[in-house]
Design a protein that fits this description.
Layout (H helix, E strand, L loop, with lengths): L1 H20 L4 H39 L4 H37 L2 H7 L4 H42 L6 E4 L2 E6 L3 E8 L5 E10 L5 E12 L4 E12 L2 E13 L5 H6 L9 H13 L5 H14 L1 H15 L6 H27 L5 H22 L3
Antiparallel strand pairs: 1-2, 2-3, 3-4, 4-5, 5-6, 6-7
Helix pairs in contact: 1-5, 2-3, 2-5, 3-5, 3-9, 3-10, 5-8, 5-9, 7-8, 8-11, 9-11, 10-11
Length: 383
């Protein structure tokens, strides 16, 4: 009975604190000011560290390919949105633990409790801001991060490594420059690069005159050669169509191999939710396995809410810590929590892509476990 009563009291205190937050108080503004100070410093620190690590990893490529300073700067400009998106949860977690740790160290938490202020009144502003950061992260990822990833990969491959741009996407269709003076259009490319639907191949001579067009409803790789299914071959001369032949299934001398096609696969990180959803539907309608992309689709949403989840999980740890818990221990606690969260998250993603977990559960298992544990511990905190 005592445990049940204390739980009811905690839930009532939490509800009252939530309604009280709707009218900002001096205490709320003070907590948020301290939080944002640490958040700004942390996110900038993570950005600087990430750029330095990336610089050291790519320095050999920059030197080998004689990349100009302008190109390097441009690369890191488009690298920055990715770091801000993935670094925001760590910054929120670290800022949460340090903010509450510093308040506790300065005896401000004790003073608040002596004045009748519940710990929930301290927690609610941080949770609200963490939720706001999560929502901003979602919009930021859908509007900027995916396009910045596209541009970053283009700069790395084309402007720095001087690779020829072999393919581009238009409305999820692949256009690529093939070997033997060919231009290839693929309606739907399966991720393994060994099967695709809706191929049109245009072959030109050295003077760029069209000499052949091949259309195929489906193309498969049998391990050694390409099989073109249900299509037509047209050969041209300067006077027009010279020969035309339909086929049900033929072996065709297609110069590209599966690894060439796999390289032009459009990655999930380079698509927003709408593009990824449409791509999944095309894969399903063509009978291809879209499991990997379905998991990635759910993870785009779950990733954005990580900032709120880690704040919910980190607040009870801070309240349970004593006054003598230093900043170093706060940083250490943040790192440990982040490592465990990342492990659970990526284990879930891997099991989802392997078909062991349902896609939704695989993408949300980290948030569900840490969110449930955090909420339970928050309600268990003594007021």
């Amino acid at each position: 009975m005592r445990t049940y009563s204390s739980r009811i009291t905690s839930e009532d205190a939490f509800t009252k604190s939530l309604f009280r937050f709707s009218i900002p108080t001096i205490l709320t503004r003070y907590i948020l000011r301290e939080f944002f100070k640490l958040f700004s410093l942390t996110i900038m620190g993570l950005l600087c560290i990430s750029i330095l690590i990336e610089l050291f990893e790519k320095i050999d490529d920059f030197i080998e390919y004689h990349a100009s300073a302008g190109t390097i700067i441009e690369y890191f400009i488009f690298y920055t949105p990715r770091v801000l998106f993935y670094g925001a949860p760590m910054a929120v977690l670290l800022s949460t633990i340090l903010t509450l740790g510093i308040l506790s160290r300065n005896s401000e938490i004790v003073a608040m409790r002596a004045a009748g202020v519940s710990l929930y009144s301290v927690a609610i502003p941080i949770l609200a801001v963490a939720l706001l950061i999560s929502l901003i992260s979602f919009v930021f990822n859908e509007s900027l991060v995916f396009s910045a990833n596209q541009r970053m990969n283009y700069i790395k491959d084309v402007k720095i490594k001087k690779k020829t741009l072999k393919a581009f996407f238009q409305q999820n269709r692949v256009w690529m420059r093939g070997k033997d003076n060919a231009v290839i259009n693929i309606d739907l490319l399966q991720p393994d690069g060994e099967n695709f639907n809706g191929l049109t191949l245009y072959r030109f001579d050295d003077k760029f005159n069209l000499i052949e067009r091949v259309d195929a409803k489906e193309v498969r790789w049998d391990g050694a050669r390409w099989i073109f299914i249900n299509g037509k071959i047209r050969k041209f001369s300067t006077n027009g169509i010279m020969d035309e032949k339909e086929f049900d299934a033929i072996y065709y001398n297609f110069s590209e191999d599966p690894k060439d096609l796999k390289m032009v696969e459009k990655k999930s990180e380079e698509m927003n939710i709408i593009e990824l959803y449409n791509y999944i539907q095309k894969l399903k309608n063509a009978g291809f396995n879209a499991l990997r992309y379905i998991v990635d689709l759910h993870s785009k949403v779950s990733n954005s809410l990580v900032s709120f989840i880690v704040a919910l999980f980190g607040i009870p740890f801070s309240f349970r810590s004593g006054r003598d818990e230093g900043i170093v221990k706060g940083i250490g606690t943040s790192i440990v929590i982040a490592i465990f969260f990342v492990l659970v998250f990526y284990i879930g993603i891997s099991l989802g892509r392997a078909g062991i977990f349902p896609p939704f559960f695989a993408a949300w298992i980290g948030n569900l476990l840490f969110g449930t544990a955090g909420f339970y511990m928050l309600l268990s905190v003594k007021q």
